[in-house]
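Researcher: Here's a chain I'd like modeled. Treat it as a single chain, no partners, no ligands.
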Amino acid sequence: MFHLLIHQLGVDDAAIPLFGVAAAVLTTSSFLPQMVKAYRSKSMDDVSPYLMSLFATGTLLWMIYGAYRSDIVIIAANATATAFNIVLLYFKFLYRRKPAGSD
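Model: Modeled as a single isolated chain. Structure tokens:
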């Protein structure tokens, strides 16, 4: 059904992979503002470690799926997202607040 809609809109089959590339670029680059904010503020208090752990697991599974499908866009986007997530996890560890009186 969706395939028919795409053709009715005049989108050529050759253009469809561009949607995948655009989606990969947008979702992967969505990490950049958080990375910049964390670096500048030296704080990751508002970012859940559970979010990062679940996301990292998801991107690793996507990379396995991409390898199975031999889809370089899926592999590259999720490898980059995983790397960005590792940076955020590092910031989370680096910028964690020490309990009061632990000096």
